[in-house]
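#struct-queue
[09:14] JT: dropping the first one here, sequence first, then the structure tokens:
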Amino acid sequence: MTLSPVADLAARIAALADGKTRRMIAIAGAPGSGKSTIVEELAKLIPNSAIVPMDGFHLDNATLTARGRLHRKGAPDTFDTDAMLHMLQKIALGGAVTVPVFDRSADAVVPDGAVIAPETQIVLVEGNYLLLDAPGWREMHGLWDLTVLLDVPEAELHRRLVQRWLDHDLPLQQAQDRAASNDLPNAQTVMSMSAKPAISFKTA
């Protein structure tokens, strides 16, 4: 029987587990590439796995406002990469670790929003910039046991990102403007500045 692409990817990741060492898997991709959906599917298919979202390391709105960067929230420089690196290093050592998550309805980080259980063997770290070849992000590269970059055509990303704002009841022009002013520049950064992954995973 032929496995679905996601099931095949899950099997490749699960094969890394040796029962002794915690494995750190980077699942990166542009905004609108389907990272969250795919990672949730992977977590269901991979025994003893857990998800760590990059969004748990957003800088708070007060800090971004003070830096004049609130309008670009979600860009690479609007994350606390030092805290993220420290947390990932702690997770990689094993044991139970509490991790932050992002509450979209409150537009704020929940500091201890999830727990990585001690028996977790595969940690699926999900985010836009995990493979970015840039200061703050580059320092994380040595932690990855496997890297996956979601490959979606730019035209499809554009369609999804505009649709995302339409789904928030914005008029078409405002949805297009929102996508063009922040989402698409972030997507182009991911596509142009990410290091070559071990696996390029086509999703569209």
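[09:21] JT: and here's the second one, same format:
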Amino acid sequence: MSHLDRLVEKAVADAREREKLPLPSAVSPVRPFPRSGLIAEVKRASPSKGDINPGLDPARLAQAYERGGAVAISVLTDRPHFGGSLEDLRAARAAVSIPVLRKDFIVTDFQVREARAHGADAILLIAAAAPLATLRSLRQRARELGMAVLFEIHQESELDAARACEPDLLGINARNLKTLEVHTGAFVRLAPLARDIAPLVAESGIRTAEDARRYRREGASLLLVGQALSAAANPEDATRTLVQA
């Protein structure tokens, strides 16, 4: 099994446990997801880096991101490997006026419905995480619930799946989730082949103002930044620096 296979397997097992519980019934209306700007991520830990900011307050961090100019918030909800939770998602969304993305290993219909029930305005779908038929079904369910879909790819062979799923945004992740290796040239290599699908989101390895400027020059409409912001001593200023860049 690849690293991604193990992540998905554990996420599905956890979701099956949550299926035994009722979903929240009172849900705020969906907030439209932007097509340009900075998506700032609430990220406690990661398999590649270990602890990043395990004691973070998701509400206060999301508010700092919003003050810094972020156009949306991404929240890791995977608990075993990222230390996140649906409670983090709910807390972050309640604290800000901008839309919130649920970032997890979503491969079941329940996980999509669960995301909306906990306030998500958008979800992440990963090309390498499930068969195309499953991904298309999940994308359709998200559309029925009013949520946007960020569809993530890492290599050229996944472009056909991206086109078939007609996502709202297309993420190009520099990190190969099967091996956790980072390929810094992934975005510039794939962007010319992918820009006709949806607005492009650069993911992973964005730390500095120069990183932000480079990805914009290469065609990114949005940047998704996690570790550099969650670990920052002053996340509001760190967000503002990347937004201004």
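[09:30] RK: nice, looked through the second one.
[09:31] RK: Strands lie at 37-42, 45-46, 50-51, 72-76, 100-103, 122-126, 148-153, 169-173, 200-203, 222-225.
[09:31] JT: good to know. Residues 3-20+33-244 form a domain with the TIM Barrel fold (CATH 3.20.20.70).
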